[in-house]
Amino acid sequence: MARTRADANTRHPRHERRGEARLPAVVATLIAIALYLLLPQRLLIAPRYVLPSLECLLLIPLIAINPKRLTRQSATFRVLSLTLVGVIAVSNLVALTILIHELVYAGVKDGRSLLVAALQVWLTNIIVFGLAYWELDRGGPVTRTQAPRSALPLADFRFSQDEDADAVQEVADGASATSDWVPTLIDYLYLSTTNSTAFSPTDTMPLSTRAKAMMSVQGISALLISLLVIARAVSILH
Predict the structure, then answer these.
(1) Which of 8, 50, 78, 141 could lock 46 by a disulfide, CB 3.0 to 4.6 Å apart?
(2) Which helix (H) or strand (E) holds 48?
(3) Which residues lie across from 87 on neighbouring strands?
(4) pLDDT in tens, 127-181
């Protein structure tokens, strides 16, 4: 514990850091792709392997550019990474729309498969919005660690660490102003999870218009899944 506190008290300028690890984002993306592949065919907008293949093709060059650590970025890299997240997000929102249509108009009787599909869409919703927040906030994962704070774009989210500098010492030692802390993918996935379960911000507040818009879309999507899809599926089971 003493060594951890000492490390926190030592500032590590972000341009000297090794960059955020690539593996967590790759794993999260592959899980989202796998969840889409497992959806019932009637919820897909194209043949089963078309979109997952496209997403893998987008993911491969991203891994090639930064195989271990996210330290290099170009305009092409940004376009590829944002396009990948966009494809996953749109395909999942379309799957949710079709799922709701099947419930309301198609008279679906298979409640068990419906529950599983609703869970898949909900989990993908958490992953893809977590990735979106991670890609956009403060210029993205490369900029957050490689650029000086004075050069960072305006923040989309305010984390609790961003305002803890005047808290008790053991909390202040880990604050952004004290330890040069920056959020990682896990922080954005946690934000996405709380927004999908509480349908509102918890400890992390949206600041920009686009952050508020994305959180609104995610919250409404999660609410539809929870109140309409799952409720309808349970009634079918009974």
Answers:
(1) 50
(2) none
(3) none
(4) 999 999 999 999 999 999 988 888 899 999 999 998 888 788 888 888 888 888 8
